[in-house]
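Dissemination and training. As part of the outreach component of the grant, students in the summer workshop were shown how a complex can be specified as a set of sequence lines and then modelled as a single object. The example used during the hands-on session is reproduced here so that future cohorts can follow it. Participants entered these lines:
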Amino acid sequence: MKETRHLYTDLAWLWPVWGDAATEYAHYCEHITAMVRQYAKRPVNSLLDIGCGGGKNVLNLKRHFNVTGLDLSPTMLAQARELNPESTFVHGDMRTFRLNSTFDIVYLIREHEEKYSSGEDEYTMFACVKTVADS
Ligand SMILES: C[S@@+](CC[C@H](N)C(=O)[O-])C[C@H]1O[C@@H](n2cnc3c(N)ncnc32)[C@H](O)[C@@H]1O
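and obtained this result:
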């Protein structure tokens, strides 16, 4: 956990140079969008990106959805805001956050699911997700 904090705070300045948001992340986001369009049983407008990091996925997903990003690292959030000045970003921990809105889609990358895949963390993370997932 200490290493993760180090990576997303002291070393966060490296993120912008690791992959161009508009090109390298675009294909992946198109895939996500296509899956949502294929499987959603109703129109999808709003999307919450949990662990949004520097907002590179937000940059691509916002073409299709009204995206809100949530992240634990203020440094990463600052990058996300710079890249997406018109989007909404929230500082929070995916295991404890509460928001006053719900979303048609909640997007959580597998990395987080693996990191918090045991015990209390996993339970509280999905309990938080449930509070914002429009059912
Ligand atoms: C691999 S990066 C995400 C990259 C991002 N999807 C993008 O498009 O650039 C992982 C992010 O998860 C965040 N994170 C890690 N643990 C978290 C937690 N408990 N709650 C919220 N965000 C967390 C980190 O701060 C980091 O920004």
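The mean pLDDT is 90. Students were then asked to discuss how this feature might be tested experimentally.
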